[in-house]
Amino acid sequence: MRILLVGAGGVGGAFAAIAARRDFFETVVIADYDEARATRAAAVDERYVGAQVDASDAGSVTALCHEHRITHVMNAVDPVFNMAIFAGAFAAGADYLDMAMSLSRPHAESPYEQCGVKLGDEQFAVASEWEAAGRLALVGMGVEPGLSDVFARYAADHLFSEIDELGTRDGADLVVRDEAGREIFAPSFSMWTTIEECLNPPVIWAGDGTGAGEWHTTAPFSEPEIFDFPEGIGPVECVNVEHEEVLLMPRWIDCKRASFKYGLGEEFITILKVLHTLGLDRTEKVRVKGVEVSPRDVVAAVLPDPATLGERMTGKTCAGLWVTGTGIDGEPRSTYLFHVVDNAWTMAEYGHQCVVWQTAINPVIALELLATGVWGGVGVLGPEAFDAVPFLELLTDYGSPWGMQELDPS
Asked: Do 251 and 285 share a domain, yes or no?
């Protein structure tokens, strides 16, 4: 396996650090628009090579694939570049993985009731072409989406006979402080992506449990609920957020409802609302003193780079799936499958903060399963299309076990 890793930022750097401890691949070409950053990320392993790439140009991706005889393209940049990398991998005859799918566009007349272009629609529209070519595009293979989708497959195969709801619930107790020890606002993940998913209309799946159903939208930050997260994180208010799991899970798993709620916190929600009110969430460029800039790019640029926050961050992050329905014993069941990562551990073990590390470990595991032939397929597929057991076994083998907690089903 010869991997092209597009993006040497926080997640890309963590991917390189995790994969360096494994032996399932021949080489990884780490490519970034900033070649110096790619070269720094590549320095951790002799099997790595740094390179320059323009992620917005499919031809640039294809050329790099041909130059290095790439078999698998791993997309680790903001999803605004997805379709160029996706197309570039296909043109090169390589398989493809990403951690966030092609972008959505809200419905023009009824954005908070009806779906417009959904997350992943552009990729699924060409699934038959990937299938005919015998190539695989494994989409949504991060932590969220990704690990929660693996949990959904596991729950459907081993825990439940009927599923009422697949409810992704993510929360954390992370705190970032400045040099003086004061708590500061510093998102632990890409601010560009966070604005995209939090201010777009959230999508919810409503079905009959036998595969029939439809997606609809609701207002951002709607349906707040308190969810009690495990391993000391505790109660966190979670709200509806647009996310790929809701668009992936019902394609392979029968359920009556699929939702995604995230523990953003009151301060973060307020900041996002202000950004939207001021138009600073816009991606269209505006002219400022003779220079054209995207307001959202400016917001992302003035905030701290998430990759640099590890030394000033404390706490844990939790990604998980709350499944309700009927257990295999015929009784009502409510189960939370989860993965908790402590920032102190990831910093000590890998030198990367916990949010980017937790995102990066999942595509590394998926690539190992593909390399060894345990996973395989063609077309555009989500994590739900594969056996969950070997994935979860490898997650534990990598030193970061998952957990399961039974909740009151009443």
From this structure: yes
**Phi, psi angle pair for 335, to nearest 5°:** -135, 135
| Host domain of residue 132 | 2-138
pLDDT digits (tens, 9 = 90+) for 199-252: 899 999 999 999 899 999 999 999 999 999 999 999 999 999 999 999 999 999
Where among 138, 156, 187 does a domain terminate? Answer: 138
**Do residue 162 and residue 294 come from a single domain?**
yes
Output the CA–CA distances (angstroms, integers) from residue 148 to 82, 127, 324, in the order listed: 21, 22, 14
Q: Total domain count for the chain?
A: 2
Q: What is the pLDDT of residue 245?
A: 97
Contact between 230 and 273 (Cβ < 8 Å): no
Residue 73 near residue 90, CB atoms below 8 Å? no
Of 347, 396, 398, give the one whose Cα is nearest residue 21: 398
Q: How far is CA 21 from CA 26, 305, 354, in A?
A: 13, 25, 18
**Residue 250 belongs to a domain:** yes
Residues 139-191: tens digit of each pLDDT: 999 999 999 999 999 999 999 999 999 999 999 999 888 888 888 777 776 78
Distance between CA atoms of 240 and 221, rounded to whole angstroms? 5
pLDDT for position 189 = 67
* Segment holding 179, helix H or strand E: none
